[in-house]
UniProtKB/TrEMBL annotation:
Lineage of the organism: Eukaryota, Viridiplantae, Streptophyta, Embryophyta, Tracheophyta
Pfam family, one: UDPGT
Keyword Glycosyltransferase: yes
Species in which this protein is naturally found: Nicotiana sylvestris
Keyword Metal-binding tagged: no
Name of the protein in its database record: Glycosyltransferase
Protein family: Belongs to the UDP-glycosyltransferase family.
Length: 453
């Protein structure tokens, strides 16, 4: 750490889930590049599964543990218990070093660490790895805190300050399904605790002061009237510009994907990916598979090993003519490739933001949590994509899938969607360039950290 001139030491605590790890690791790299000492606090499972290599300027403090529990909800609850047990000792250990910890940067859903951090004399920066619209939504409808909140019924459209009218299908899945995903729901609404207790509130979006989509600007500005939030995104763009892709939980098939994409015409390929957690029903996998064939476009489809057995046998033989199937991909490289014409996505926030900043229109097939709300903004507010419609049984048919792809890839509407997406790409680059809104906000954070020494 000899290169570091500042005595500032920031401890970074990510949520150990792929979609949350990437943005907070990239923010850590930005801080480290500006001579801040950064230590990422995680668990052995993440280190081993991720092969986390953040470069010589970032330390990794890994907590050993026994076997992890099965199931996302059990895992998150176990992680919380383990981290609360070990956190004080780790902070105290650094207290005896040349670089004692002064600040902890947390993923926004790890709000349960804030009180303990403050007891240890640390300042807390909460990094919200979700769209601002979700923060506004959770603020309004936190069912565990009725103070100044607006009641609603899922059977009618939801009308909330600064947000567009939201139908039931536009809301996060656990809101109307009151008994579904209790731990995830508690963590999501727990983010409101950040607004009350965290010393800094950062959003992984960028300032849209020049954008014509005024409804999105209105959402950001409304939250600013309630809390002192700062935009620092898109942090994922810095990883793209630096050409560093070491933080993927599964090793990307870079050469395989690149060679295949290089052989395709400009804008001729559909990129299909549903992230690291979404699991489609077998019937839906079948409809998606044959919908891709019916679209008559080339496609690159990421199918995780755990999902591959759901692919129809007859599809695999037909897919070789038009498609490439891999178990993971270097998503930023793929989305930036000239052959990509659209992104068929589950609308996770990282995927949504990556498509926006790389100017790629989307076909939206949201599944759960924040994805339906993201899809609403993509299709109706930002107008950078369209949303497939499910049948009465909840299944999206192959015909609907094929027609939606054609609408983006070959019809006139696709041109408009592409033009809108390119506007976002330009604004994202402006935000992170020197003098841009995100650049300035990060510089101010570092100055505030340095002042603590």
């Amino acid at each position: 750490m000899e290169e570091i001139n500042s005595k500032t030491h920031v401890l970074v605590l990510p949520c150990p889930v792929q979609g949350h790890i990437n943005p907070i690791v990239q923010f850590s790299k930005i801080l480290a590049s500006k001579e801040v000492k950064v230590t990422i606090l995680t668990i052995d499972f993440v280190c081993k599964a991720m092969l986390l290599d953040c470069g010589p300027l970032i330390n990794i403090e890994s907590i050993p543990h026994e076997a992890i529990p099965v199931g996302l909800e059990n895992f998150l609850e176990w992680f919380q218990t383990l981290m609360l047990e070990k956190f004080s000792g780790i902070v105290e250990k650094f207290g005896d070093s040349e670089y004692p910890v002064k600040v902890v940067v947390i993923d926004s859903i790890i709000s349960w660490i804030i009180d303990l951090a403050h007891e240890l004399g640390l300042k807390v920066a909460a990094l919200h790895t979700q769209p601002v619209a979700l923060s506004v939504l959770y603020y309004h409808i936190d069912q565990e805190d009725s103070t100044n909140k607006i009641p609603f019924e899922c059977s009618v459209p939801v009308s909330l300050s600064s947000l567009p009218l939201l139908e039931k299908e536009d809301l996060p899945s656990f809101i109307c399904e009151t008994h579904a995903y209790p731990i995830v729901k508690r963590l999501a609404f727990g983010q409101n605790f950040n607004f009350k207790k965290a010393d800094w509130l950062y959003m992984t979006v960028f300032d849209w002061s020049r954008i014509k989509f005024n409804k999105e600007k209105r959402v950001v500005n409304w939250l600013r009237t309630q809390y002192s939030i700062k935009t620092i995104g898109p942090v994922v763009l810095s990883i793209y510009l630096d050409k560093e892709y070491d933080s993927s939980l599964t090793k990307p098939h870079y050469e395989t994907c690149k060679k295949w994409l290089d052989s395709r015409e400009i804008g001729s390929v559909i990129y299909v990916s549903f992230g690291s957690l979404v699991s489609l029903r077998e019937k839906q996998m079948e409809e998606l598979a044959f919908g891709l064939i019916m679209s008559n476009s080339y496609f690159l489809w990421v199918v995780r090993d755990t999902e591959e057995n759901k692919l129809p046998n007859e599809f695999k033989s037909k897919a070789s003519e038009k498609g490439l199937i891999v178990d993971w991909s270097p998503q930023l490289d793929v989305l930036a490739h000239k052959s990509i014409g659209c992104f068929f996505t589950h609308c996770g926030w990282n995927s949504t933001l990556e498509a926006l900043i790389l100017g790629v229109p989307m076909v939206c097939m949201p599944q759960w949590v924040d994805q339906p709300t993201n899809a609403k903004f993509i299709s109706d507010i930002w107008r950078t994509g369209i949303r497939v419609k499910a049948g009465k049984d909840g299944v999206i048919t192959r015909e609907e899938i094929a027609s939606s792809i054609k609408e983006v890839m070959v019809e006139k509407k696709g041109v408009m969607l592409k033009e809108n997406a390119i506007k976002w790409k330009i604004l994202a680059k402006e935000a992170i360039d020197k003098g841009g809104s995100s650049y300035k906000n990060i510089e101010e954070f570092i100055e505030a950290c340095n002042a603590l020494n």
